[in-house]
Amino acid sequence: MQGLLAVLIAAVTLLAAPAAADPQPTAEQLRKQLSRLQKDFDTVVADYNANRVALAAAARTERSAAARLQAAQRDFDAARRQISELAALAYQTPQVPFGLPMGASEPGRRLHAAAILHLQAQNQQAIIGRYATARDARRRAQEEAATKARDLRDRDTRLRAERQKAEKLVAKITDRIDRLLIAPGVRGSDGSWAPELPSGPDNITARTRMVRDQVKQRFSLTGVGCYRSLQDGGEHPQGRACDFMITRGGARPSPAQKAQGDALAAWAIKNASRLGIKYVIFYQRIWQGSGWKAMSSRGGVTANHQDHVHISMH
After folding, report:
1. Is residue 196, in this structure, part of any structural domain at all?
2. DSSP code, position 277
3. Inter-residue contact 209 to 202 (CB < 8 Å)
């Protein structure tokens, strides 16, 4: 935790420093700082998740203790009913205690009745003892669970706060890195991008290559496809578009994969003007500079861009 705080303080100092005081950090310096922060952030997340598991275990311990007490209570109630029934039967036939013949003497009957009552008392004491043991164990378990749960909830609050701080700082540093990116190519005075020709073994433009590489650094993907032959149409044959796959084999994305696609599309939109991004398509919607617009169905998961994010460049 101290390592995380040190990185947080250092990063906040760096972000808040006046521009004239020190040279601005390079993208590589920011990436190194982000890498260090990410390691500490991963530790906080792991601690947070482990704490949640421990909290759930404490709740299970309390529930188990309560169940044991209920079982002991049932045993106690059953034994109490049995003792009451035996006592009632003994009082109903005091002249013939259990196991004695009709002709037994009065002292013998009294002695036998006393023995039965003694055994009843012993049985009752044993049951009461077991009940008391279960009751005390449950009370101790409740107290321990309550104390542990209280400590875990306090720790949970602290870890959540540290996690939120780290997430915000990661976002700030990532944004700083994004703003240092300079897309290659020429822009006119009106902000328009001059056309680029594809080049290199991947047969894509320099701007497309930059966006492709930046996306691969930031997001977990199942594959990336950029250049395609002329019969496909669109920007792919011109080396000005890439498909960033979030599932395999045309599968519909899970909620987590959908969130990943949304995050990738949001990143592209946020940096579109600076990186020369022309439009973004994801999940049967298209963004062309002024908000998302729905697209008509093309009949399948891949055709409707549900398993990948499409980015086209100027």
Report:
1. no
2. E
3. yes
Contact residues for 66 (Cβ-Cβ < 8 A; gap 6+)? 138, 142
- Strand positions, DSSP E, 195-263: 223-225, 241-245
pLDDT tens digits, 210-262: 999 999 988 989 999 999 887 667 899 999 999 999 999 889 999 999 999 99
Are 144 and 255 in the same domain?
no
Q: State whether 173 and 210 are in the same domain.
A: no
- Does the structure show a pLDDT above 60 at 304? yes
Residue 164 and residue 21 share a domain: yes
Q: What residue type is 24 in one-letter code?
A: Q
- Long-range contacts: 214-217, Cβ < 8 Å, 24+? 214/181, 214/275, 215/242, 215/244, 215/264, 215/267, 215/268, 215/311
The answer to the question of residue 199 being in a domain is no
Assigned token pair, 10: 């250092």
Give the residue numbers spanning the domain of 237: 206-313
When divided into structural domains, the chain yields a total of: 2
Q: Are residues 108 and 211 in the same domain?
A: no
Q: Is residue 31 part of a domain?
A: yes
Listed residue (99, 103, 77, 78) closest to 89, CA to CA? 99
pTM for the structure as a whole: 0.59
Q: What is the dihedral of CA 173, 175, 177, 180, to 10 degrees?
A: -140
Nearest-angstrom CA–CA distance, 271 and 274:
6
Strands 308-313 and 277-281: antiparallel
Please check whether residues 136 and 278 belong to one and the same domain: no
d(C-alpha 281, C-alpha 294), whole Å: 10
